[in-house]
């Protein structure tokens, strides 16, 4: 890299727009969506999709709720042409869905495009040509007039060919490709020239689509460019203003959102941001950004993993595990403090109250994710996450002190193994540490009598493998047991609950014992009988302190 990059790269010059309105606005409704997965997305694949894959993808897009789908560049290849024919001929396009196809401003390509659309009830014909200086000079070898005339010639041919196919309800779209790199007044001149030819009306609007073909600037600058056009375009009430951001600087989603504030009404992009180079704007992220602000996006991602799987299988590229809303890890907390906050938030959550769970901008359940994956345990995790998993999967409600004590065991395991501890491993570790049933004292049977406030307990135990009978009394069966055992211990905590998850039945009991020398341990036991579980838990605690 250069010590002085300014020798090679020039900063993008922002457009002065002191009267800008967009920073004061808020998004309140969803835009029109155009999926260009099958065109801009497909043209950027190492191996473009075959027709069968494209057809399945088309139906997946319909199921997500897309109503405008750019399906091909029909003049580019026989495959693209045939795909459009198949969609039309075999009746794949529902009545409320419009196909869009793209063409360069070249007479043979436009003619072929119209041929592909024969018999379509509705269609959007999308004309584009690059207008920015580098393209004018290097690609077309033309001045501004030449480039404007290129657009005008294409628009005229499209108008005339559409008139010759009156059975189709046509809508026209013009993209001044490389808009964001072009001089705004020239972009305006070309767009106005095209709309002068197409003569849209408020009832039959044409689409002006302003692409950031290459993302050149910060999103606020793109928003200024959009607002500048929005407030100056001739026939504005007869236009649908659309944006088509790419993601070269990693800001396409922000650019699209600010562009919507700046007057755009429609967004073109792809699922998961596929497309040329760094991709098109990710429509799924945009839609779920709206959703998580309480705005119905008009797209349905209730089963986000199915959509992701479909896209991955179709295009042969993976979705990143940290991809917003859809990545494998995006609802998952490994770190202790995040887990603690999520667990508390989930516990306090009221079903009808606004979503307010810390660290989770969206309820994973809304996109078909379960809560199990929300918390995963590794060496960065704390007691909160560990107990959440034991609670969710095995129905254990560990007392706080036991959570702390057990988390040390888990930490030891994860540090040593370098591995994640899933719910099954945690349960195994818990059983191994607390429910192994070994130790000096073993329970055999007991009998209990009540004399006023005093409980009399007769115990048949095993001590070091030998039968041991003893008795004691106290204000509770557990106190009576400690007396019977004649150990210098106190019960400092006692909790329990029925079991019913993870294949267990009966009750589980947790008892914290404190030795007179200050040492503490938890005894845990499960049994079909609550009383027996408590007595066994005391013995387990005694065994722990004996170790
Ligand atoms: C930003 C975007 O995503 S735009 C969409 C881009 N998508 C694609 O290009 C995928 C499909 N494209 C193709 O398959 C091919 O490019 C075809 C079939 C359309 C055309 O192929 P060819 O004519 O053989 O070659 P090629 O694409 O290199 O043509 C470039 C020519 O088109 C001209 N051209 C490029 N864009 C346009 C345009 N929008 N309008 C008119 N002419 C254009 C170039 O100036 C160049 O002209 P030249 O040959 O006189 O120098
Ligand atoms: C043709 C236009 C819309 C395009 O794909 C782009 O600029 O990226």
Automatic annotation (TrEMBL):
Residue ranges of the region described as Regulatory domain: 437-547
Reaction equations catalysed: 3-methyl-2-oxobutanoate + acetyl-CoA + H2O = (2S)-2-isopropylmalate + CoA + H(+)
Pathway field: Amino-acid biosynthesis; L-leucine biosynthesis; L-leucine from 3-methyl-2-oxobutanoate: step 1/4
Known EC number: 2.3.3.13
Binding locations of Mg(2+): 40, 244, 246, 280
Keywords of this entry: Amino-acid biosynthesis, Branched-chain amino acid biosynthesis, Cytoplasm, Leucine biosynthesis, Magnesium, Metal-binding, Transferase
Matching Gene3D superfamilies: 3.30.160.270, Aldolase class I (3.20.20.70)
InterPro entries from the UniProt entry: 2-isopropylmalate_synth_dimer, AIPM/Hcit_synth_CS, Aldolase_TIM, IPM_Synthase, LeuA-like_post-cat, LeuA_allosteric_dom_sf, LeuA_N_DRE-TIM, PYR_CT
Coiled coil: none
CDD domains named among the record's database cross-references: DRE_TIM_LeuA
Subunit structure: Homodimer.
Family, per entry: Belongs to the alpha-IPM synthase/homocitrate synthase family. LeuA type 2 subfamily.
Protein name: 2-isopropylmalate synthase
PANTHER family: 2-ISOPROPYLMALATE SYNTHASE, PTHR46911
Principal cellular location given in the protein's record: cytoplasm
Cofactor(s) recorded in Swiss-Prot or TrEMBL: Mg(2+)
Domain Pyruvate carboxyltransferase: 31-305
Summary of the function given for this chain in its UniProt record: Catalyzes the condensation of the acetyl group of acetyl-CoA with 3-methyl-2-oxobutanoate (2-ketoisovalerate) to form 3-carboxy-3-hydroxy-4-methylpentanoate (2-isopropylmalate).
Gene (UniProt): leuA
Domain of life per record: Bacteria
């Amino acid at each position: 890299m250069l010590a002085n990059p300014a020798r090679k790269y020039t900063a993008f010059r922002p457009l002065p727009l002191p009267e800008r309105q967009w920073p004061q606005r808020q998004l309140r409704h969803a835009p029109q969506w155009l999926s260009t997965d099958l065109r801009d997305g497909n043209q950027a694949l190492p191996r473009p999709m075959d027709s069968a894959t494209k057809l399945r993808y088309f139906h997946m897009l319909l199921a997500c709720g897309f109503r405008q789908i750019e399906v091909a560049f029909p003049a580019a290849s026989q495959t693209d042409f045939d795909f459009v024919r198949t969609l039309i001929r075999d009746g794949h396009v529902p009545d409320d869905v419009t196909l869009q196809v793209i063409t360069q401003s070249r007479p043979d390509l436009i003619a072929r495009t119209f041929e592909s659309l024969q018999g379509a009830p509705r269609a959007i014909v999308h004309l584009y040509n690059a207008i920015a200086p580098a393209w004018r000079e290097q690609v077309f070898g033309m001045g501004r007039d030449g480039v404007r005339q290129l657009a005008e010639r294409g628009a005229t041919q499209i108008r005339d060919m559409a008139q010759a196919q009156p059975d189709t309800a046509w809508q026209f779209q013009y993209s001044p490709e490389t808009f964001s790199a072009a001089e705004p007044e020239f972009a305006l001149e070309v767009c106005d020239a095209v709309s002068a030819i197409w003569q849209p009306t408020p009832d039959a609007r044409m689409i002006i689509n302003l692409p950031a073909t290459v993302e050149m600037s910060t999103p606020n600058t793109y928003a200024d460019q959009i607002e500048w056009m929005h407030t100056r375009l001739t026939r504005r009430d007869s236009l649908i203003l659309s944006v088509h951001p790419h993601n070269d600087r990693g800001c396409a989603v922000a650019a699209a959102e600010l562009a919507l504030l700046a007057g755009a009404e429609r967004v073109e992009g792809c699922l998961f941001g596929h497309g040329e180079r760094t991709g098109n704007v990710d429509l799924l992220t945009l839609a779920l950004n709206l959703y998580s602000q309480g705005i119905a996006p008009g797209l349905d991602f209730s089963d986000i993993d199915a959509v992701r799987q479909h896209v991955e299988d179709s295009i042969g590229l993976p979705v990143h595990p940290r991809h917003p809303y859809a990545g494998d890890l995006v609802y998952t907390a490994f770190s202790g403090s995040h887990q603690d906050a999520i667990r508390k938030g989930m516990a306090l959550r009221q079903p009808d109250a606004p979503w307010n769970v810390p660290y989770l901008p969206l309820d994973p359940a809304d996109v078909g994710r379960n809560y199990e994956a929300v918390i995963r345990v590794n060496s960065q995790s704390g007691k909160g996450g560990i107990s959440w998993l034991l609670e969710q999967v095995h129905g254990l409600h560990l007392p706080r002190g036991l959570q702390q004590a057990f988390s040390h065991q888990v930490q030891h395991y994860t540090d040593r193994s370098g591995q994640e501890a899933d719910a099954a491993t945690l349960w195994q570790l818990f059983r191994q540490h607390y429910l192994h049933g070994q130790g000096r004292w073993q329970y055999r049977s007991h009998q209990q009598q009540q004399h006023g406030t005093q409980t009399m307990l007769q115990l048949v135990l095993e001590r070091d493998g030998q039968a041991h009978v003893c008795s004691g009394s106290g204000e509770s069966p557990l106190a009576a047991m400690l007396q019977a055992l004649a150990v210098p211990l106190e019960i400092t905590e006692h909790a329990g609950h029925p079991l019913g998850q993870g294949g267990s039945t009966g009750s589980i009991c947790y008892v914290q014992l404190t030795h007179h020398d200050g040492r503490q341990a938890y005894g845990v036991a499960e049994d079909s009988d609550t009383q027996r579980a408590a007595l066994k838990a005391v013995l387990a605690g005694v065994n722990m302190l004996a170790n």
